[in-house]
Here is the input.
Amino acid sequence: GQQVMQIPQYQHVQEGEDFTTYCNSSTTLSNIQWYKQRPGGHPVFLIQLVKSGEVKKQKRLTFQFGEAKKNSSLHITATQTTDVGTYFCADAGGTSYGKLTFGQGTILTVHP
Amino acid sequence: DGGITQSPKYLFRKEGQNVTLSCEQNLNHDAMYWYRQDPGQGLRLIYYSQIVNDFQKGDIAEGYSVSREKKESFPLTVTSAQKNPTAFYLCASRLGLYNEQFFGPGTRLTVL
Here is the structure.
């Protein structure tokens, strides 16, 4: 079945450094959604990408959808301690029941 | 306030006992989902429901059962047949096929 691979699994950065997580699929992704889960919390929706080559920004966060719709990335500029958490990508379509297929997530630690 | 509630937050059970996790939403969403999350891992889909009185198995349905008698409610029963039930269980709902999912706060189940 559909698999979404996410790398890296862990990332440790110093506050102020940049961070990027990548989401890859062997098959074409429908729409990509990104979620953030704070430690001990639940996933919270960040953004959805729909179009090939789409780029969206939210303050220090930049989201990209690959031209072939087989990969996506989330880049955080100048990380802050509030960015700590696990970032998940999810393929948001492909079936009539609207299942989300999640990547394994990238756990981000930010050292002050 | 609109949202999704899950209760209880922490649950302890003895091995061999069935246990039911509650999930209620007042967002008027048609679709509801149950995920399991193990430490350091992504979200795996257990069951999902697009409409009242209808539900489908997800990727890891064995040892679990659900019901959807009301639009607002989607309880999950972890049966004694589930071999490794200790995990963090997340319930989610969604307005439409390509909308984001809203997650509840989760229930952390520990089987002793």
